[in-house]
Automatic annotation (TrEMBL), chain A:
Signal peptide bounds: none
Name this polypeptide is given: MFS transporter
Cellular compartments annotated: Cell membrane
Lineage top rank: taxon: Bacteria
SUPFAM superfamilies: MFS general substrate transporter (SSF103473)
Keyword presence, Transmembrane helix: yes
Domain Major facilitator superfamily (MFS) profile residues, every copy: 1-183
InterPro entries the record matches: MFS, MFS_dom, MFS_trans_sf, Sugar_transport-like
Pfam families assigned: MFS_1
Major localisation: membrane
Annotated transmembrane regions: 12-29, 35-55, 67-85, 131-150, 156-175
Organism this protein belongs to: Exiguobacterium undae
Keyword ATP-binding: no
Topological type in the membrane: Multi-pass membrane protein
Automatic annotation (TrEMBL), chain B:
SUPFAM superfamilies: FAD-binding/transporter-associated domain-like, FAD-linked oxidases, C-terminal domain
Native source species: Exiguobacterium undae
InterPro entries for the chain: ALO_C, FAD-bd_PCMH, FAD-bd_PCMH-like_sf, FAD-bd_PCMH_sub2, FAD-linked_Oxase-like_C, FAD_lactone_oxidase-like, Oxid_FAD_bind_N
Annotated protein name in UniProt: FAD-binding protein
Keyword entries, A-Z: FAD, Flavoprotein, Oxidoreductase
Domain FAD-binding PCMH-type: 37-209
Family annotation (PROSITE patterns): FAD_PCMH
């Protein structure tokens, strides 16, 4: 995968997820009526991720990082359309399970793309550090911007906006020129 | 090729997006009652203003095969005022006093009027309500749909004081209902929980406002039935009565204190006695709060209330003021707990063994009971779904419970035991509360349920007026 594009895509993904994260937490807390349900919702997310990694690793080698990243962004675009209208805790659990899989796709891909880059052993640290710097910077902007945006938007429209962002990223990935995985 | 695949993906996304936004902008309203235990997605809430409008809505519902539930202030806690996907008629703005004849001691009010509004209107003329609940926060339509009783021991249920009412029936027609016109509806609609139509307005009798002296004494529960018969029922001057039994570890289901309101010949003009307002909220609220969470708190609340009422002995109160008991201090909001009411009727002569049985159930079972008050209802079978099959004591329970499914199941199991104990003593239970009772218990407590259902099918064959209560116990 084209590395500069990858960094741009990842920055957009991380920014988007950072924007909605605090509001998503609020929503889960509101729908559930106990901390136990809240814990269960979050536990389900992590648990699904854990098992998803097993399969995703293999899929990544077979279908390529770009494809998996597209599944992640398109999946997020769709699931975020359901978040504003969810009313039942059981549906929140389901969303958490789906997001667990989608999150695992993203995290795994992030690492595999980095691992597939041609890097001299002496510059690996610097490259990874640089990658985290750029993407975290965008996350920070996202979080700060969300705080201001929420004064003008409803929480629902924020989810729609971010869903549209994810869909845009999906299209960007779709139309990007695939490059061979391994040299 | 690539573009041909992406096209349906974009269409899919746009469709999902539009659907979601539409859903988001058209949320189904949620209706619930004061207990907040059965929140339900309803179709819509319509606030009633005029009979014409109401008639249109009924006819519209009939055409479209939709259902209607009727709501006042929604203090009934068993889904009587709503149902999934129903149209809820909010009657609280349908609240005019239509006719008031102080000389004839008669008033006609729209069903959304509250007792408080009526008291405001009639008090300056030295008049008072004959029968209502102990608090004045309820609507008349809601109270009649439950056919409530109160503290007055000389009248029966609310229905006894009603001369007539107008009902908007399932055909969209307005009928006049009284003991002589549509007498069967006169027995079905009160205590009929809105299943026969919309009560538009009610005409009922008033009584004189009177001066009472409050008289509170402490006694042992075993002395109560005799005391009640000799010193309360047989003493014509006692007009109202309320008892309390301890649910605190001190005197658990043994200690009682009871308050009588005796008519006096005090000569101070009663019209000059202002209607009391609830002012002291903080202290009782704090004590009630403490009693929710600890045995210590329960003891404190019991001893505080008892000494307070004993000290009140000998004070004068107008009938109107006795009939506007405090309630704001009981308001309770918690995200994970709620307060439920239960009410059991037990024949006067079964009181002592019944209390013994309750004590033994609650010694082994964990139920957070905050207080129990006791009232008296005379045998009154004028309503089809009548709870007073003989002269009964009515025990009103305030129970604090967590709202998660497991806690509700636990509460349900214990409440069913309590209902069984009540039925064992030929008692019954009050219907406007959370539907803990099984169907078998319901049928045993209300042997005329089958004829009620038959009448419902006759008067509303298309089941336009529907609520969760009917689904739970009749369907």
């Amino acid at each position: 995968m084209h590395y500069p594009l990858f960094i741009r895509i990842q920055s957009m993904i991380l920014m988007s997820s950072s924007v909605i994260f605090p509001f998503y937490l609020l929503l889960v807390r509101q729908i559930g009526d106990s901390y136990a349900q809240f814990g269960l919702a979050y536990g389900l997310f992590t648990l699904t991720s854990a098992f998803a990694y097993l399969g995703i690793g293999r899929l990544s080698d077979r279908f390529g990082d770009r494809f998996l990243l597209m599944v992640h962004t398109f999946g997020m675009a769709l699931i975020l359309l359901y978040v504003p209208i969810v009313t039942e805790i059981s549906h929140v659990y389901l969303i958490q399970i789906i997001m667990g899989v989608l999150g695992a796709l993203q995290k795994n891909t992030e690492k595999t793309v980095l691992a597939r880059q041609d890097m001299a052993p002496t510059t690996i640290g610097r490259t990874v550090g640089h990658y985290h710097f750029k993407t975290s910077l965008w996350s920070a902007f996202g979080i700060i911007a969300a705080g201001y945006l929420i004064d003008f938007l409803t929480i629902g429209s924020l989810f729609y906006l971010i869903s549209a962002c994810y869909f845009y990223v999906t299209l960007r990935l779709w139309f990007s020129r695939p490059r061979p995985l391994k040299k | 090729m690539k573009r041909m695949i992406i096209f349906p993906v974009i269409v899919l996304y746009m469709a999902a997006f539009s659907w979601s936004v539409w859903q988001y902008q058209h949320p189904k309203p949620i209706s619930s009652d004061q207990s907040k235990l059965l929140p339900t997605r309803i179709k819509q809430v319509r606030s009633a203003q005029s009979p014409d409008e109401l008639t249109d809505w009924i006819r519209q519902a009939k055409r479209n095969h939709e259902t209607i539930s009727i709501a006042g202030l929604q203090h009934s806690q068993g889904g009587h005022t709503y149902l999934a996907d129903t149209t809820v008629l909010d009657m609280t703005n349908y609240d005019m006093i239509l006719d008031y004849a102080p000389k004839q001691r008669r008033i006609t009010v729209q069903s959304g009027v509250t007792w408080a509004e009526i008291q405001q209107r009639i008090q300056p003329d030295g008049l008072a309500i004959q029968v209502m609940q102990s608090q004045n926060i309820f609507t008349v339509g809601g109270a009649l749909s439950v056919n409530v009783h109160g503290r007055d021991i000389r009248y029966g249920s609310l229905l006894d004081t009603v001369e007539s009412f107008r009902l908007l029936n399932a055909d969209g027609h307005i009928v006049n209902v009284s003991r002589t016109e549509h007498p069967d509806l006169f027995r079905l609609v009160p205590g009929g929980y809105g299943l026969f139509g919309v009560i538009l307005d009610v005409t009922f009798k008033l009584t004189e406002d009177e001066w009472y002296t409050e008289q509170t004494i402490a006694l042992d529960y075993r002395e109560y039935p005799t005391y009640f018969q000799q010193r309360v029922l047989d003493d014509a001057d006692v007009r109202m009565h309320i008892g309390r039994i301890s649910v605190a570890p001190d005197g658990f289901f043994k200690e009682m204190y009871v308050t009588n309101y005796r008519k006096t010949d005090r000569t101070i003009p009663i019209e000059d006695e202002p209607l009391k307002q609830e002012t002291i909220i903080a202290l009782p609220k704090a004590l009630l709060g403490l009693s929710r969470y600890s045995e210590f708190g329960k003891n404190q609340l019991w001893s505080f209330q008892k000494s307070y009422f004993l000290k009140q002995s000998g004070t004068f109160q107008s009938r109107n003021n006795v009939m506007r008991s405090d309630s704001a201090f009981m308001d309770y909001t918690s995200p994970s707990r709620t307060e439920l009411l239960q009410e059991y009727f037990v024949p006067v002569e079964s009181f002592v063994p019944y209390i013994d049985q309750l004590r033994s159930i609650l010694t082994t079972e964990e139920l957070n009971v905050l207080n129990i008050t006791i009232r008296y209802v005379e045998r009154d079978e004028s309503a089809v779904l009548s709870y007073a099959k003989q002269d009964m004591f009515a025990l009103v329970w305030l129970i604090n419970t967590e709202t998660d499914a497991a806690s509700i199941r636990l509460t349900k199991r214990i409440v069913q035991k309590l209902i069984n104990a009540t039925l064992d003593h030929h008692g019954s239970y009050y219907l406007p509360y959370y539907p803990f009772a099984t169907r078998a218990q319901f049928q045993q407590a209300y042997p005329k349920a089958a004829s009620f259902q038959a009448a419902k099918q006759q008067y509303d064959p298309e089941a336009i007026f529907m609520n969760q209560f009917y689904i739970d116990y009749f369907k």
